[in-house]
Amino acid sequence: MDAIAKINDPQCELLLLLSCTGISRLYFTMRTCPPRFFEFAQRSFDVAFRSSLERVVTASGTGFSDWQWKLATLPYSFGGLGVYSAGDVLNYAFLASRLQSADLQTKLLRHTGIVSPGSIFDDALSVFNTSIETDLLSNPSEITAFKIMKKIADIYFTRVTKNVESIFSLSSRHMALCTSQKEDHTFDCLRTVPISGLGKTMNGKTYRCVMCYRLGIPLFSCSKPCSACSNVFAWDIYGDHAVSCVGIIGIKHRHNVVRDTLVDICYHSGISAGKEVDIGLDRGRDKPLRLADILLYSWDGGLYVCVDLTRSSPLTQTGMVDFVPGRAVIDVTQCKRGKYMDMCAATGYGFILFSFSSVGELEADVVTLLKRVWKFSIT
Predict the structure, then answer these.
(1) pLDDT of residue 272
(2) Please, which pLDDT band fits residue 371 given cuts at 50, 70 and 90?
(3) Which of 362, 341, 5 is nearest to 184 (CA)?
(4) Which PANTHER family does the annotation name (predicted)?
(5) Domains detected in the chain
(6) Cα(94)–Cα(38) distance, rounded to whole angstroms?
């Protein structure tokens, strides 16, 4: 972990932490070691690991508290960064490993008279059932060798996330953040490999801002007027406005980054596409409409299709009332379709809305579009 820090690139450092201290390495170390024999080594490992992860996220700055540590070390599907602490893995890796090989051991030892899994296994099972408040082997038929590690891990982390709110006294925004990041595709960006030769990289400061946003670490100490548009947004210490302001000079707006990347992907996939295309929607209107973000030529049975990119944030103050994950992108989609679809159809164009949120949620049509683009790229 000390050697990884010498790279001085937080995105590459996190990818290496995922690879070198990921779940497979920890499983290999702990699968044959009873938990009670591993506690001291686990504590030493996690102290060093937390320090390394804090350096990746905040450059050893403030804000990386016990809550951020717990959220970061959850699996992707539970809203985390996919890096695992030894303290968590210790609770179930040994049990899962023994259960995976239970059938084989039974066959090998069938003539010896040994039928019990042993006191070490029984002790570990008892500790697990007590701490998670479950009865893991109450129905042995549910515990099969196939994906047993994943099943037990899901049982463990489901219980952990249920206890999070009471342990850390989280705000409604933090709970919404954690819930939103469990949605499909919200963690895809974390597994992206930077390619400097193609210009697909992110500078360290920007990447750390993204990590702080995902972990609920304030980017600002207090609410101040935006330096680009002069508007004041209450409680924007987490950067909900800052990460999307179109007035910032010298930094490409996230909306435009997504647009340019999608156009670039289309080009390399052999799809004819243009950006910022005037399709004449503002004719006869007092207030002109903006240009189509992307125009796909002969996309749908010869029909030209406009793609409108829209970014939303589910974590604004207005979004905290009766919060439902994914609702932000759905609401924006319905609004934009009502505004543009009929106008596009009247001028002979199709319409697709590319709606995504600040935490990476994607509307259903976006997934369909990307899958179709992917098929073009492999044919």
Answers:
(1) 92
(2) very high
(3) 362
(4) PROTEIN, PUTATIVE-RELATED (PTHR48462)
(5) 2-188 (no CATH), 252-377 (3.40.1350)
(6) 11
Measured distance CA(124)–CA(115) in Å, rounded: 18
C-beta of residue 366 within 8 angstroms of C-beta of residue 188: no
Report pLDDT for 245: 66
Bridge partners, residue 306, by sequence? 295, 351
Angle between helices 39-58 and 204-214 (to 10 degrees): 120
For 12-66, the pLDDT digits (tens) are 888 888 877 655 566 566 666 777 777 788 888 889 889 999 999 998 778 899 9
Please state the φ and ψ torsions of residue 289, each to the nearest 5 degrees.
Answer: -90, 150
Q: Which amino acid is at 255?
A: H
Q: How far is CA 42 from CA 26, 34, 123, 166, 217, in A?
A: 10, 12, 18, 25, 26
Residue 289: which region, alpha, beta or left (left: phi > 0; alpha: psi -120 to 50)?
beta
CA neighbours within 13 Å on the CB side: how many for 138? 5
Residue with tokens 């937390």: 50
Where do we find the tokens 């002069």? 230
Give me 209's structure tokens: 């801002």
The 3-state DSSP class for residue 337 equals helix
pLDDT tens digits for range 261-272: 899 889 988 899
**128 Cβ partners below 8 Å, 6+ apart?**
91, 92, 95, 134, 136, 156
As a whole number, mean pLDDT of residues 315-320 equals 65
Q: Each residue of 11-24: pLDDT tens digit?
A: 888 888 887 765 55
Is residue 240 within 8 A of residue 219, CB to CB? The reply is no
310 has which bridge partners?
Answer: 355
**36 residue type, one letter:** R
Strand partners, 355: 310
Burial class of residue 103 (count of CB atoms within 10 Å of its CB; 0-12, 13-18, 19+): exposed
Q: How far apart are CA 149 and CA 28, in angstroms?
A: 12
Compute the radius of gyration of the chain from its Cα atoms.
25
Q: Say which amino acid occupies 19.
A: S
Determine how β-strand 350-357 pairs with β-strand 303-312: parallel
User: Tell me, what amino acid is at 290?
Assistant: R
- Copy the structure tokens of residue 283: 């004719």
